[in-house]
Amino acid sequence: MFIECTLSGNRIFCLSDLHINAERLDFFKGLLKNLEADAILLLGDISDQGETHLVIDELQKGLKIPIYYVMGNHDFYGQWIDLVRNKAKSENYLTKRSEPIYLSSSTCLIGHDGWADGREGDFFTSKIIVRDSFEIMDFKGRSIAERFEKINELADESVEHMQEQLQHAKQAGVETVFIATHVPPFIEACLWEGEIADKNWAPHFASKAMGDMLRAFFLENRHMKGEVLAGHTHTRAHVQILPNLEIFVLQPGDQT
């Protein structure tokens, strides 16, 4: 469910895949109020109702610390993706922020929802039927080719946003960038039953476009360090991608 990490002296609790509904809302409100932290970071799949902005508002009530967040695929169930995003307040929803959150002069937090883009494994022969295809309005009634085009569009949009944020961080002289996203950018960190996701699961688990961009950026900027925080797969992973780039994937129930 959550991990505690110290980002440049800031004690931040990271949580992913909470899937909060009406019955569980009071539990999580109590949990967050009892945390001794400087901020909370939610890594998507906060709710399954398409009303995540209302859940965030409820969680934030009574809290004196900010809740930063990105959304996951479940957050858009029953709705159009743009409609859900437009309802979210921009100051703490990382996907809508035009500037990084600077935790210190040398450290910042950036983020975007991200999307599994089908470019890993074999999307067109995958035997896995994900609920997104009939739960999210953007995908309902579309052919497999149309869905593939749409998830590529969503993933590429997240890459563009992250590139802009990384350039902001670079120009500001930031040394360490914490990167929040729902979908893991690297297939190496997408585990299923202890193994890297196979060609059936990989299309739905990873964002290859995001991974390719992050590798290229941190190879070129070796003086900077990137730490990616993700969820989605419900399987814990920690992978050192480059000497200056690593990823942590949270699973529900994580607590360290």
Structural features, described:
The chain has a single domain (2-249), classed as Purple Acid Phosphatase, chain A, domain 2, CATH 3.60.21.10. The chain is built from 7 helices and 12 strands. The chain has helices at residues 22-33, 52-60, 81-87, 132-135, 144-171, 202-205, 208-220; strands at residues 2-7, 10-15, 39-43, 67-70, 101-102, 107-112, 176-181, 191-192, 195-196, 225-230, 237-242, 245-249. The strands form 3 sheets. It has a 6-stranded mixed β-sheet, with helices on one face. Helix 1 links the parallel strand 2 and strand 3 (39-43). The protein is globular. It starts with a strand and ends in a 7-residue tail after the last strand. 43% of the residues are buried.
Q: Outline the biggest β-sheet.
A: 6 strands, mixed
How much of the polypeptide forms β-strand, as a percent range?
15-25%
The global form is globular
CATH architecture: 4-Layer Sandwich
* Annotated CATH topology: Purple Acid Phosphatase, chain A, domain 2
The helix fraction, in percent, is 25-40%
Summed up, the helix count is: 7
Q: Uncertain spans, ≥5 residues at pLDDT below 50? A: none
DSSP summary, beta strand count: 12
The span between the termini is: 10 Å
Overall mean confidence score, pLDDT: 92
| CATH class call | Alpha Beta
Structural class comes to alpha/beta
Report the CATH superfamily.
Metallo-dependent phosphatases
Order of helices and strands: EEHEHEHEEHHEEEHHEEE
Spatial arrangement of strands, main beta sheet: 5-6-7-10-12-11
Calculate Rg over CA atoms.
17 Å
Write down the oligomeric state: single chain
